[in-house]
Amino acid sequence: MATRLSIQTIITDTRAAVCKRRIHAAGFAKQVKEVTLVDVYTIDRDFSEKDWPRMGALLSNSVTQKFSTVQALSPKEFDWAVEIGFLPGVTDNVAHTAKESIEDLLGVPFEAGQGVYSSQIVFVRGALSRDEVAGVSGLLSNALIQRVHIKSHEEFLRDHGMDLVLPKVRLSQKTNIDEISLALSDQEMETLGQKGICNEDGSRRGPLSLSLDDLKIIQEHFAKKGRRPTDVELEMLAQTWSEHCKHTLFSASLDDITEGIYKTYIRRATEVIRKVKGKSDFCVSVFKDNSGGIVFDQDWIITDKVETHNSPSALDPYGGAITGIVGVNRDTIGFGMGAKPVINKYGFCFGLPHDQKALYRSEHKSDKLLSPRRIMDGVIAGVKDGGNQSGIPTPQGFCYFDERFKGKPLVFVGTVGLLPATINGKPGWEKRARPGDLIVMTGGRVGKDGIHGATFSSEALSQGSPASAVQIGDPITQKKMSDALIKEARGLGLYHSITDNGAGGLSSSVGEMAREAGGCVVHLDKVPLKYPGLAPWEIWVSESQERMTLAVPPESVAAFYELMKRRGVEATVIGEFTETGKCQVFYEGRPAVDLDLEFLHEGLPKKVFLSCEDPSGKTELLFPAPQEQTNSLLNLLSRYNLCDQSFITHQFDHEVQGGSVLKPLQGKGRVCAPATITRPVLSSKKGVVLSQGINPRYSDVDAYRMAACAIDTAIRHVVAAGGSLEHLALLDNFCWCDARNPVRLRQLKDAARACYDYATAFGTPFISGKDSMFNDFRGYDENGQPVTLSIPPTLLISSIGVMEDVSLAVSLDVKMPGDLVYVIGTTGNEMAGSEYLAYVNEESQSQFVGKNVPEVNAVRARLDYQSLTTAIQKRLVASALGVGLGGLGVALAKAAIAGQLGMDIDLSRVKIAEGVVRNDFLLFSESQSRFVVTVDSRKCQAFEKIMTDVPHACVGSVLREPDFEMKGLNGQRIVNTDVAQLTSAYRKTFAGW
Q: What end-to-end distance do the CA atoms of the chain give, in Å?
């Protein structure tokens, strides 16, 4: 018989305070007086009376909480009780950990069919109707993955609590392997590609994301074989050929780029750079594994990979984000023979948090889109839990806001790994499955979660987006698996190859590894399942998390099994690698897949696209210049993209593993830093320096310059922190919209061309990348009118460098009164896409766009960066900060806030380009390749000597007093404030979050 264990916090519960704030923010501040939370574990197993107190003590904190299995705990006063738990089949990490803890405590395993299920009761005191309580429950839950049960105070007392619910999965056994007829009209073919295979009841399985041309190639292939494809084969081809996995747009012929923009611009850039570097080339494995790898030192390789998890995060922000971060961790574990994840990083692009205007996926006002605030809170929590519970530091990241990310957020998650250069006498980055090796799946079990994840991510978000695309990662299970593989099995040489089960699940991982060996045979009925009833095709393409696939030689499988069992990790042989040239899959002895590897991986028809220029012209700026800029500066510091975002940073553990050098928050004023430094090998003085560059609004005017600025920004921040161009690599993440639109394709082509031009100019190779091409929302507004919301074309450039000596690290905070302030670089009239222009538009309700997106002079910038690096290596620089969003005004203000020291600045000394005739443009232009640097006055002569050929100017000094003053072009004072006001403006936007 199942029993409910209730746990109530008896002192201040911060979780309840967060719920209360969320409810108040939604307009219920007057009605809702108090919120109390009670955690519930529903335990489906009989235990003796003496065991329950032990379990309660295990799962609760004796100082801050009380527990009971006898009565339902509740506050003395409440009006409504809302219980929120997971729907059947949704990964319940808390319950999973509780179950394992109980088994360890009592030494008694749960039997098949028995389990633990977690839920939470929110007790609300306030004058609310039942409909209003239903609205409140919608704020606190996600109908896609959670169940909600509401009771009034009277009902709760009458029933002695909430109802006993066991959210078990109950499926009818589905073992069919269906043959799919492709004797269809073109219209029927298109429906098949867009909506998926038809079920017996007439419903569809979900998108295959196969075009008409794709399906005709498949039709022709199977016609030659004289048979129909099975549903498993069609699903496998769909995920293998999906945009998410195959990156068809990047390999397509586009205008005169017949080889595709990936080969022409991205890969070729790296090939050219590596050839130029010759013996100083530090790349070891690029574009061919789950991550990119570069030399750290003679003993170690560092790897880097950045993924996107946009579509799942739009549906379930927490599940989408945690799956993203643990998934990119597995990309690291699956690099070479297995790298250890040592650093996590993130980047979030959200809609405006205050935007409560409703959007719907259905014209009938059902399936409401989650608000930007809900998405933001869930994504941050997901990345936090994924990283913190995995014991991986997360020092680096950013958050960018624009109303166009409301329909689909961008969720970038990345992981840096550490790998021995040599493992068992062979290069650590080399691996190969061999014929005769056994196919071993290890880690979590397979369920319905994540089905059609790859194909779903290749479509715009719409009413047809499947709930089964959502997954929730389990970092605890993955951590055990990671440690067992990386710390033990790898060194023992128990496997020949390893990769992760990500997009496409076993279909993808086994299909890819089969290319190494030359073929494979898989038995789906041997795959361990979370629950019975999955159809063969579901087992094959499910993206259930925490799984790796390995090639284990037969003579090592017993030792591998024993090791995994000791570490509490499940491992199962599901097949064998062969050299038949085929992927063959069986279920209970019946053939499910019989595909030639050549057709599976190379049969996708090459796409051909044409692009065109954007016909809309851009206008020059027309608004008048304010006389005084103090208010503008303070208001800019409060904008979402420029203000203090430390409420995110504080949630992420950046000190775990002990290697943090240059922190994410710097100076007495704790300002968010654009670059961090970490020591992955604690016995070495070398460090890994990380940064990112992203400027989505620039693409509104010029996608080429947008990409150039992203590259320059990612490099600039590394240089300011003490890194060097000599050992610096890049990663590209393209997130586009409406990506078959000729105008969008021209923007994509321009951005990729800039990647080649500027990577080669700076000598910084690309080592890995990813693209997400259909970040659009198509739905309805509150009036039932159709709405299409597309993100701005966005390119994230991530930079990773190796720093020879971390003692040379430079932070952004000004250090000492009397230090001189320098501006390096030239300021131009480059306001298009700037934060200042966005601020002016919001204040004046205008639509100014501007024409002058910042232009990067890479030749000039490279010389300047090398000079600054020389000055830093000679320890002449006290602080340095790359000038980015918000321009000089914001950069100088942040340096002062970080140091909590004043400044006296004369901007008339700044090196300016022709056309800078306004003080607001001088202050807030986002011209690239510039720095704000402070230097001890005793070292200024040596510093200026190094900077002789660099455009630079001493513009003032650091003050002991808190005054912050600036003079403009004519020597007139244009900013007059102090550090306290600057700090207050910087902090207030997210204060209390």
A: 42
